[in-house]
Amino acid sequence: MNQSYSKLEINHLNMTYGSKVILDDINFKVNAGEFLSVLGPSGCGKTSLLRILIGLAKPSGGTVMKDGVDITSAKPMERGMGIVFQNYALFENMTVLGNVEYALKVRKVDKASARETAMTMIKHMGLAEHIHKKPAELSGGQQQRVAIARTLVLNPDIILFDEPMSALDVATRLALRDELKDIQREFQTTMIYITHDQEEAFALSDRIMVMEEANIVQIDTPENIIQNPANDYVKSFVIDNIQRKINSLAKYMR
């Protein structure tokens, strides 16, 4: 992991919806090439944070800085980021090739180059034999690989993941975890991963940002969170739960 500079810097980010506080004075940095997981229960604000980072929602206050440039008001296409959604968000009427190629067409890449680049990425993701299939003909894991290929083909320097494995079975999740780490190393991409799964966050992350009710409770390496939980919430929600998940996974692997 390259820690020489901050790829992303979030300063005093706030978001309210009516009288409800969604995000309360959020501050953190993401290093270039880092895998940061944002871990918290449903309703804590982690998905709202992701939507602000990608440009799909506007904060009530604060700034989003990328490579030292204020992108708080920039359009999603101007941010150099990609996103992989929980429900894959594939076009059901398009083939695997059509879905991956579409992202390049939107960017006005010429047809021949778009086709070549898309096919290369599809092969890279192990989907060559499924290239002419539509999403309904694919497994959940294969659909997720298509979604990742569609994001990677645009060569983003930051990729955001919105609970991308929550609908997958255990074996598929384990395989995709390894692939994500391989992708991160190969493409040297900064990754921000939204999840409510403690064991998943610890398996993937360089650092973990633990959230509770619109606030950051702790942000640190997995090792430091285990050794020095910030408070009883971190100990209960993170450490106790991860031990239960590890025990459950051990039973599955027998």
For the structure shown, list the relevant keywords:
6-stranded mixed beta sheet; alpha/beta; 254 residues; 39% helix; 8 helices; 10 strands; Rossmann fold; 4-stranded antiparallel beta sheet
In a nutshell, what does this entry contain?
The protein has 254 residues and is of the alpha/beta class. It contains 8 helices and 10 strands.
Overall number of structural domains: 2
- Number of E-type strands: 10
Strand content: 25-35%
Structural class based on helices, strands and sheet pairing: alpha/beta
What does this structure look like?
This protein has 254 residues and is α/β, with parallel strands linked by helices. The chain has two domains: 171 residues, 3-Layer(aba) Sandwich (Rossmann fold); 67 residues, no CATH class. 39% of the residues lie in helices and 25% in strands. It has a six-stranded mixed beta sheet with strand order 6-7-8-3-9-10, sandwiched between helices. Helix 5 links the parallel strand 7 and strand 8. Helix 2 crosses helix 3, helix 2 packs parallel to helix 4 and helix 3 crosses helix 4. It is globular.
Strand-helix topology:
Layout (H helix, E strand, L loop, with lengths): L5 E12 L2 E12 L3 E5 L6 H9 L6 E6 L2 E2 L10 E4 L11 H11 L4 H14 L15 H13 L5 E5 L7 H18 L2 E6 L2 H7 L2 E6 L2 E6 L1 H6 L4 H22 L1
Parallel strand pairs: 3-8, 3-9, 6-7, 7-8
Antiparallel strand pairs: 1-2, 1-4, 4-5, 9-10
